[in-house]
Amino acid sequence: MGQNMAYERRFPTCPLIPMFVDSDTVNEFKSEDGAIHVIERRCKLDIDAPRLLKKIAGVDYVYFVQKNSLNSRERTLHIEAHNETFSNRVIITEHCCYTVSAQHLGKDVHPENEDWTCFEQSASLDIKSFFGFESTVEKIAMKQYTSNIKKGKEIIEYYLRQLEEEGITFVPRWTPPSIAPSSETSSLCKKQAASLALVVPDAAQAEGLGSEALGSPSGPPEPGAGTPDDKLDADYIKRYLGDLTPLQESCLIRLRQWLQETHKGKIPKDEHILRFLRARDFNIDKAREIMCQSLTWRKQHQVDYILETWSPPQVLQDYYAGGWHHHDKDGRPLYVLRLGQMDTKGLVRALGEEALLRYVLSINEEGLRRCEENTKVFGRPISSWTCLVDLEGLNMRHLWRPGVKALLRIIEVVEANYPETLGRLLILRAPRVFPVLWTLVSPFIDDNTRRKFLIYAGNDYQGPGGLLDYIDKEIIPDFLSGECMCEVPEGGLVPKSLYRTAEELENEDLRLWTETIYQSASVFKGAPHEILIQIVDASSVITWDFDVCKGDIVFNIYHSKRSPQPPKKDSLGAHSITSPGGNNVQLIDRVWQLGRDYSMVESPLICKEGESVQGSHVTRWPGFYILQWRFHSMPACAATNLPRVDDVLASLQVSSHKCKVMYYTEVIGSEDFRGSMTSLESSHSGFSQLSAATTSSSQSQSSSMISRWRFC
């Protein structure tokens, strides 16, 4: 088909589609007779979306998986595409079909010209949740789809003309190669037998065809590996898989058979395939989509070998308050997490998101291994584990926004690649601030998973319907007034001496995410560091979190109706300094006057060395906001003091006149707080409940909320 030759020229990139950045071939299959050719690609797209939306979503590009299925025998080309990025929140599917008349199959696109081609296109969009921007995403998707329809015909005609210019004006039809009858007959019989096993829900037939249909090895398998010879035996199902209806059993066979025919690499065990099927209510097409995405992800990041090749850093072993602890009454492995005792910010600052995510992945891989072990021990299928989360000690400090953002991203990865592994989640001693955290996190958790949550406030877990209904008395941890000594680390504050710089986190060898949270900057006497934030809509919320690593600084927020001039890299005194210790950027021009060209929207905040500061500001006007960190000396410099070249040069020579900060900022529409802003402000006194190892002070104003603490 000439259309297929033209279509394939769009890859790996297409100059006619600027948003199409790149593509990689994930899977490819060709039938022995050459009639069927299936190519699956992973495509990288630069969607035309608002910069603010991309920043909130945490991505610059989105990825789609596209499968092209060419059937030369029937003269059809089917193109299927679905989104890989944010597939838990938005489901986008598109289907295109090129069909040429095939009279020998009784198909006529046009009665007078059998070489005419029929083109059909359809798409669907299902938005579950997207940070409160559901309507915006819908508009972007509709705009993109309309644009694709208009350009699709132009692009295919462009490449057809290109083929004509190269002298290719005719593509001969496919003809079947000569195959020995015995081989063809044998292959046909096998396909018919396999189809019969899938269509006729008869246990005797299924048992007889199971091994061949799934490629099971002959003879008994090694314990814990491979698949038994009597794969569809009722005993095997009861022992390893659990109760399955004939339809569910058929779905399992079909999905495994498809994987064996198309997937290059390790085929998951039946138990894991069933998890994906259950996660999509045994819809084979949907289960196949998410499983293919997961298999590609596992291969890309070598997740299958994480337990053998990766050891958690000592910081995690000492301060991550979680670990495995026996099993529940149903035989599920029990994981205990003392979240209220964990220094989330300290772990992120000491390790970065990469190490935390890798550690969570290793926990899930260990959970899968323990499920297999418990299946052998208890003689019945154990496919999930129970998680016990103790929230005693949870307070406003745990609602640190970069930490919540990291948590949401981890949840997204786990939900996509370990479906139906959480059997039950027991949340104990939920404090007053828990509803705020739940409001932020719950929209990103699958509905099926949410139904497995049991939440207990205070000591309610000790009463009827509490912990004893799910865990034997003799293994209830000691910190929950139980009799069993729990070896889970107690957590505690991570020493600031273990914190790493943004540069160190950026240079990680193994990366699952592409960006770090924090940036570092140097502040000199006479040379503040400033960042520019443009606000389009009033009532947006600017949030920040920074640590004063060296020296004392003054933090200011300014507003201007006009944009400052961009920093000049070659002008030391005017705007920009790059030093070994970090970057220094100055935006406020020295000819600007406070009160005329720009205004102060918050009172200056003096921050001492070693302090951590979090805060937010609800903007009143659109325009340009400047966050400034300025060197603090006694007496404090006036706000109108402006940097001079000689001051900057002198400050570079005097180490005592240098400060260093690490900061994180984010801009979010106020509606995306989903009501949590009011809760945060009303619960501000929760900072007084910090552990005795911290001291706190706060400053609250009508349009902002700032908190800080110093570790002793």
Automatic annotation (TrEMBL):
This is SEC14-like protein 1. GO terms for cellular component: cytosol; Golgi apparatus. PROSITE patterns: CRAL_TRIO (PS50191), GOLD (PS50866), PRELI_MSF1 (PS50904). Residues 514-667 form the GOLD domain. InterPro entries: CRAL-TRIO_dom (IPR001251), CRAL-TRIO_dom_sf (IPR036865), CRAL/TRIO_N_dom (IPR011074), CRAL/TRIO_N_dom_sf (IPR036273), GOLD_dom (IPR009038), GOLD_dom_sf (IPR036598), PRELI/MSF1_dom (IPR006797), SEC14/CRAL-TRIO_domain (IPR051064). Gene3D superfamilies: CRAL-TRIO lipid binding domain, GOLD domain. Signal peptide: none annotated. It is found in: Cytoplasm; Golgi apparatus. Its main location: cytoplasm. The keyword Mitochondrion does not apply. May play a role in innate immunity by inhibiting the antiviral RIG-I signaling pathway. In this pathway, functions as a negative regulator of RIGI, the cytoplasmic sensor of viral nucleic acids. Prevents the interaction of RIGI with MAVS/IPS1, an important step in signal propagation. May also regulate the SLC18A3 and SLC5A7 cholinergic transporters. One of its GO terms (molecular function) is RIG-I binding. It comes from the Eukaryota. GO terms for biological process: innate immune response; negative regulation of RIG-I signaling pathway. The gene is SEC14L1. Residues 209-230 are annotated as: Disordered. Keywords: Cytoplasm, Golgi apparatus, Immunity, Innate immunity, Phosphoprotein, Signal transduction inhibitor. Residues 1-168 form the PRELI/MSF1 domain. Residues 312-488 form the CRAL-TRIO domain. It holds the Pfam family CRAL_TRIO_N. Interacts with RIGI (via tandem CARD domain); the interaction is direct. Interacts (via GOLD domain) with SLC18A3; the interaction is direct. Interacts with SLC5A7 (via GOLD domain); the interaction is direct.
